[in-house]
């Protein structure tokens, strides 16, 4: 039975119609846990508005009734940011019916899309007009633009194109009181005061609900080369990316680091994957160069950079993809890591960032301290070297039980975050805080920074009804 006032139920039903209201317990279950089943909650109702106007009306009605809302997109996050608490009093507001691509302006290199559009659909719409939308991540077939904006998503192309914040020119937002702010400006220059869109990008639905956005498009890639390179150490990866950047400039669009443990899990658990080399190596990088020219000399650039790396001992072996199928196979090794690790039992995921120059020292120190404190844990370290973002994940020792390992999760997290802080890093590079890292943020963020964040929250959402219990 819903905990909502009868008047609010009637109002919401009138706003969204029968197709937009889910109050059956069984039907709501898909909205009440994340895709890993790591977070689970309860809700009074799931509301699925089909337009920005309906979102505004829903928010206004809930605001007047004093009912908290939990915005939700594709529900592919890793920090529980889109899952309600267990009170059963909150309303989940799903944006998956906001699926219109409102405009594609090839001349202005922009695309305007609603929050429920799946990332892959934006990529396809850009390709249809000879452009690209470069955000790329493992969940691109199911994550939504609204979720990407709410968490300031990163992915594998940040090195060249930046995070979601860098790819956004304007947003449309429903404020906590139900007013609709139309900030859908396709301008690259607009120096008329505070750039308000940045308040909402990365705010995880705690300040307002993004219903649409104007995104940047880029010229289509017409030539590409991809290589899988074996390395002796993370320090060799830092040296190699510096070498490739100096040689290739913005043509360097991907540089992904993976430990042998990461790749071993993929080879063990992901069907259709094979080791590119006959011998095992301690570390690997996946390098991708791209250009808008059809016949750009990318292979020559790659060979020049790798040749120098071999001479300096930075590279141990390398293979260059000779076909699109081989490119896909190499990327499958990288993209399969998160899924593969789940087959090894509980996975403690830590999405950290440090200065690029500190990557090797961070890994060495964190590895040593973890093995001393928790002997036998398996460290699955991989990530985006170009922006200092490492996914530093931990699996239980071979043959150990799940429960004792899970009981160590907080201690392991604090150890990793203490090392991260020692290198002036961040405890969340691209996944956000959600409910998973909310308390950790109090320990590792500057108190004044948190005070300013709370002040913004109090100004925009004084009743505390927008995604309560997340981020702050």
TrEMBL record:
Query: Upper lineage ranks?
Result: Bacteria, Pseudomonadati, Pseudomonadota, Gammaproteobacteria, Pseudomonadales
List the SUPFAM superfamilies.
Answer: FAD-binding/transporter-associated domain-like (SSF56176), FAD-linked oxidases, C-terminal domain (SSF55103)
Which Gene3D superfamilies does this chain map to? 3.30.465.10, 3.30.70.2190, 3.30.70.2740, Uridine Diphospho-n-acetylenolpyruvylglucosamine Reductase, domain 2, Vanillyl-alcohol Oxidase, Chain A, domain 4
Q: Write the record's keywords in alphabetical order, separated by commas.
A: FAD, Flavoprotein, Oxidoreductase
PANTHER family under this entry? BLL6224 PROTEIN, D-2-HYDROXYGLUTARATE DEHYDROGENASE, MITOCHONDRIAL
Identification of the protein by name: D-lactate dehydrogenase (Cytochrome)
Q: Does the keyword Oxidoreductase apply?
A: yes
Q: Quote one Gene Ontology molecular function term.
A: D-lactate dehydrogenase (cytochrome) activity
PROSITE patterns recorded for this chain?
Answer: FAD_PCMH (PS51387)
Q: Describe the location of the FAD-binding PCMH-type domain by residue ranges.
A: 39-220
Q: Which InterPro entries match?
A: FAD-bd_oxidored_4_C, FAD-bd_PCMH, FAD-bd_PCMH-like_sf, FAD-bd_PCMH_sub1, FAD-bd_PCMH_sub2, FAD-linked_Oxase-like_C, FAD-oxidored/transferase_4, Oxid_FAD_bind_N
Q: Which family does it belong to?
A: Belongs to the FAD-binding oxidoreductase/transferase type 4 family.
Q: Tell me the superkingdom of the source.
A: Bacteria
The UniProt record lists the EC number as 1.1.2.4
Q: Indicate yes or no for the key word Flavoprotein.
A: yes
> What cofactor is needed?
FAD
Q: Name one Pfam family in it.
A: FAD-oxidase_C
Q: Which GO terms describe its biological process?
A: respiratory electron transport chain
**Organism per entry:** Pseudomonas fulva (strain 12-X)
